Amino acid sequence: MSDTNNAIYKELQPGTGLCDGKYIIEKKIGEGGFGITYRAVQSGLNRAVCIKEYFLAGGCIRDTYAKTIHLQGIDEDRFERFRKAFVKEAQTLAALHHQGIVEVIDIFDENNTSYMVMPFIEGRSLQSIVDQNGPLSYPEAVNYIAQVANAVGYIHDRHILHRDIKPDNIMITADFKAVLIDFGSAREFEEDKTQAQTSMVTHGYAPTEQYTRNSRKGAYTDIYAIGATLYFVLTGKVPYEAAARITEQMPEPKDLNPSLPPEANRTIMKAMQLKSQDRHQSIAEFMDDLRNVKPSASNTPSAEVNAKPQNAQPPKAEKSTTPQPAGANKKTKAIWIIIPVVVIVLASLVAVKLFLSNNNEMDIAIAEYNEKVEKCQVMIKLADGSKPEKLLQTRAFIDSAIIGYETKYAAEMPEVFNRSSELRKALGPKLKEAAKSWAEMAFTQVSELGDTVTACEFYSLSVKLFDDASIRDEASLFGCNL
C-alpha cells in the first residue's frame, strides 16, 4: 500500500456500492479508532444493514475516486495485525446466535480493507438514554442488565470474554430488548488462567486485571463491567476507574441514589470488588445475588447435624491412671528448678552479645541494610503493571536507600553491601512489561477513542518506567512531547 494525496473524504459517500452492488451506503453513523460504521441497504432483500469498515484512525487515508484506502503514519505489519483482529471479531460474532448479541451476516474484503455486515438495530444505546433522561428506575435497569447478563453467560459458556461491556455497547430496541454490540475486544479464555492479552481499558468499566497483559482473567472480568454498567444506569455517574479505587474510596450506589434497594447496592459492590476472587465467579451467581436468591436447604447443614444437647458441658479431662516410676515427682521438681537457671544464663549471654553488637556501628549498619533489602524484596513482589507508581517507588528506593548504604560502607565491608544488582535484576522485567502495557494502552486510547491527551499521559508513564526509544518514536507520531 502507498500513500496518496487524493483523499477528500475520510468515509465512504452515500450511494457508494460495495460487494458488486450488493450493499449501498446510505450514511455514516459512527466511527472509532479501528473502524467506520455505516447504515446501508442490502439491495437484493431491500433491508437495512449496518456495515463496519476497518479503517485505522490516524493510520489511513482514502483515495476518494477509487474508494481504496492507503496507509499513512503506520507500517503495513501493524495495519495487517489489527485487520486480522477485525476479521477475527467478525468470525467470532458469526458463530454466535443469541437474541441479545448482534450477529454478523456477511464479511468481505474490498478497497484494500475488510468489512463486516450486521442487521441494523433500530434503537439507542443505554449511554444515550441515561444521558438524555437521567438514571433509570430500578425495575427498568434490572430488566436490561438481566438481558445483557443472559447474553454474556451465553458467550462465557463458549469460553469467550467480551472485555468491553459498557453502556455505549448496549443497544435498546423499540420493543425494549437489550442487544450487546462491539465484540472488537472479545477474546477466548480459560477460566482463571494467566494469559497474555492486549490491554483493553474503558475507564470506569474495566477491572484491575485488564490494565495488564499478563493477568488472570475469567467470567469475573466481564462481571465487574456489568456491575459498573448497572452502577451507571442507576446513578447517572460513571464509576471511579479501578486504578484510582486503589487509593480513593468510590461512593456506593446507594450514596448517589438513596432509593436503591439495599440488596441491589450489595450486589453491585460485590460485582465491582477490586480483587477478582471477591466478585461473583459466574453469571449465574451474579443473577442469583441480584434476585436475592438464598441458598437452598439442601446446601446447608441439617438441624440434626448442628444441634447440640441442651446444658451440654465440655468433657472433663480424665486423670491419668498410668503408674509413675518411683522418684518421678522429685526429678520433675529438680528439672523445673534447673530450667529457669539455664534460661537466665542464656538470656544473660544474649544480652551481653546484643550490648556489644549494638555498640558496633558496622553491625548496626548491616542489620539496617538487610532490613531495607528485605523491604525492597517485598516491594518488588507486590508491585505490578496496574500500580506503576509502586514500581517507580521501588526503583527509587533501590537508588536511594539500598545504593546509599552500599556507597557509604562498601570500603569497610564490600562483600556485605552488594545486593542492589540482584534487586535491579528482579525489578527490571516488571518495569519493561509495565512500560509495554502502558504504551499499548496509549495506542488504544488514540487509535480507538481519539483521546491524544490520555494517550500522551500513558506514553509518558511508559517511558518513565522504561525509556524505550521506539516508544518515544511512536508517541511523537501522535504529537506527544515526552
Q: How many E-type strands?
A: 15
Helix content range of the residues, please?
Answer: 40-55%
Order of helices and strands: EEEEEEHEEEHHEEEEEEHHHHHHHHHHHH
According to CATH, what is the class of the largest domain? Mainly Alpha
Rg over alpha carbons: 32 Å
Overall domain count = 3
- The CATH superfamily of the largest domain is known as Transferase(Phosphotransferase) domain 1
Tell me, rounded to a whole number, the average pLDDT: 79
| Backbone structural class | alpha+beta
Strand content: 5-15%
Q: Please tally the helical runs, counting DSSP H or I stretches of 4 or more residues.
A: 15
Give the low-confidence spans.
1-7, 187-199, 294-328, 330-337, 341-345, 354-359
From the N-terminal CA to the C-terminal CA, the straight-line distance is 30 Å
Q: What does it look like?
A:
46% of the residues lie in helices and 14% in strands. The protein has 482 residues and is α+β, with helices and mostly antiparallel strands. It has three domains: 103 residues, Phosphorylase Kinase, domain 1 (2-Layer Sandwich), CATH 3.30.200; 173 residues, Transferase(Phosphotransferase) domain 1 (Transferase(Phosphotransferase), domain 1), CATH 1.10.510.10; 117 residues, no CATH class. The strands form five sheets. The protein has a six-stranded antiparallel beta sheet, covered by helices on one side. Strands 9-11-12 form a three-stranded antiparallel beta sheet. It has a two-stranded antiparallel sheet with strand order 5-6. The N terminus is likely disordered.
